[in-house]
Design brief:
Elements: H1 2-15, H2 23-52, H3 57-66, H4 72-79, H5 91-120, E1 124-126, E2 129-134, E3 137-142, H6 148-156, E4 160-162, E5 167-171, H7 174-184
Helix pairs in contact: 2-5, 3-4
Amino acid sequence: MEEFQSWRDKYFKKANRIPTKTPEEEIDDALIRLEKERNNHTLMIEVNKIFRRKTSEEEKRKSLLEELELSEKLVNELMEPDFMGRMGFASFSLTNSNARIKNLEQKILVMKNRIANRDTFEPIAFEGGSIDIEKDRVVIRHEMKPPQDVINSLKSRGFRWSSHWKCWCRKHTAQAVYDAKNICGV
C-alpha cells in the first residue's frame, strides 16, 4: 500500500505540475505588468497633485471623481487621513511603485539577453560529451555514465538527471552555462 501511495503522490505531482514559461512568454507577461505598473504610478502622481492643490476637500473630491474618474470607494479611501494626517498616496507607495517598474524593466532586459544567448549559442564539445541549450535548459550529454564525483558536482550545482531527455539539465541562465563549463572542464 505504501508503494502504491508513493507512486500515486508522484503521479499527481507530475500531472498537476505547472509548466515553466519560456523567456518569450515571460517577456510578454512582464510587458503587460509593466504597462499596468506605469499606469498605476502615473495615477498615483496625479492623485497626489490634486491633494497638493490649495482647494477645499470637497473640490479635491470632485476633481478625483471627475478628472481622474476614480470610483467612489477609492476616493473615500484616499480622502481618509492616515495616522499622520496625510491624504492621498504615501511617498513610500510611490517609491515602491517606482522600484517595481525598475525591476520589471530589468527582468525584460535579462529575458532578452537570455533569448539572444540561446539563439547564438554554439554547442560545446568536450571529451566524452557536449553542452547545449535546448528548450530553455542547459543540457549536458555524456557518451557514457560519468564518474560519481562528476555526478555529485552536477547535483550540487543544480543539474538534475532527466530520464525523458537522457541528459543532465538545468534552467538556462548565465550561471548555469558557467557551471556546466566548469564541471565538464571546458
